[in-house]
Each structure stands twice: as structure tokens, then as C-alpha cells.
Amino acid sequence: MINIAVLLTCHNRKQKTLNCLKLLFMQRGLGHEYSIQVYLVDDGSTDGTGLAVKEEYPIVKVIMGNGNLFWNRGMHTAWANAAEQNQNIDYYLWLNDDTEIYENAILSLLSAANLTSGQSIICGCIESPSKKGKLTYGGGNMHGNKRIMNYPADGILACDIIHGNCVLIPKVVYNKVGNLDWKFTHAIGDHDYSLRAKKVGVLSYTTSEFVAACEYNEGSPKWRQPKVKFIDRIKNLYSPLSYSPPNEFFIYEKRHFGLLTALKHFLSIHLRLIIPGILNNKQVSINKILTEANQ
User: Are strands 61-65 and 146-149 parallel, antiparallel or unpaired?
Assistant: First the structure.
């Protein structure tokens, strides 16, 4: 029996969460030798997400959060519970509830894992639901000062940095790398995990095909918009939902790219906060700063 623990965290997206679980339990190609157990953190939802999940999918283990966990700490909590409650897990699967996995997604991830003898992280390639074939999330490599996304190809592709939408982690990798880092509240924990793994000799790969659909979150953050009040720009920048607050991003960059790079971007981010129009001609956004961390 191959045991797979699926890890999710959610907040006030009841229909998306239920749809995600529906697609998960409709997976094809998995015989009786596979067992799936879902660990879902309901991080203080007020729309009845946790109750709805319990009623429709009683097999799912629902863990209640306090509303302050967000993605990274919610996933950390789900992972810690899964690891503690089941010692026989062979794979952990990170899954975002806004990611619509295809019916062969898990089989594709497992097939990719087999190509690495189950010793590597497998990041699923995600495409736009409105523009099929357009990569939105997946894995990427650092080339010079640019982060290059990896597109599906004839075979799995090595990558340095992963997005956590749909990621398969063998237990042997978990035993070496451990859980997501609690220091990160919402974002950047997935990037950090793959880079931590690389330091201990664990490689990451993307799948050779798209395994799910999820639209890319675009748009200029409020903290860079001149029309937004300064105090509101500060609050937005230091909100966990700003992608990654500067203090957390500093930890990430210092850990993986050195003190000078971390200081450089810490200062440049705050310069853009104070003078939001600066560098507009280059269209520098927080996502670009954070994902092209080594520029």
C-alpha cells in the first residue's frame, strides 16, 4: 500500500475548497494499492468551510486554525498533524484549494517521482484556465540575475525554486528537510523549502506536463500605488497577504542569497514604499522583486 497524505489550508473559500476536494477524489489511474488521507486546516473560516467539508467528505481530517495561520503556517500545521498521526505515509502532497487538478494529476506526479527513485521533490506544472498552455505556476531556475520558469517538456526538468500549488514530497525528503519554516507566515515558504532541500542534496523537478489549472495573481500591490495613503501602503506592505513582508523576505534572502542582497532589497522595497512612482518605467512589482531574488 502506497500512502499519500494530502495537505491543504483554506480560509473563506468554501466552494473552491469543496471543488478542490471533489477533483482530488476523482483522480484516475490509482488502484487499490494507493491510499489517500487528507489533512485540511480551516484557518478561522466564517463561511462554514470546515463544517461543509466534514459533512460532504467525512474522511477528511479537518484541523481548526485561529485565522492567523495563512498559507505557510497553515500548511506547516497540516503537515505536522499528518506526520504525527500517521507514521506510514510514503508521500506528502501540497495542494492549494484554488488549484484545479486534472484527473491524472497524482499519477503524473508519482510517475515523475519514480524517475528520481522517489528521492526528489516533484513540482506540478500549472497552466492558466483561460489560456491553455500558458504556464502560471511551477518550478524555476536562477540564470544570472533572472528567475526562469520551467515549461513542460518531454521529460522532467530540474528546478531550484518551486511554487506550492501542487507539490509531491516523498517521505525520505521530509525526513531530510523537515517541515515548512514557521518563520514565514503566508508566502515564500515554498521557495525557501526547495532551496533548503537543495542545500542538503535533495533536488527538485517539474512535471513533464500540466497537472492542474490556476490563474496567476497579477496586479500592482497597494503599497506601490501613489493614490493609496502612506499609512495604508505601510499596512499593505507588512501584511502577510502582501506576498512576503520585508522582515520575512529579509530572512529568506539572507539565508539563500547573502546579507548584501538581503539588505539591498530591504532598502529598495522601502524606497519604493516611500516614493511609489520610482522605477515605474521598469514596472518593478513586489512579485518581480521577490521571485527574481538574486537580481
Answer: unpaired
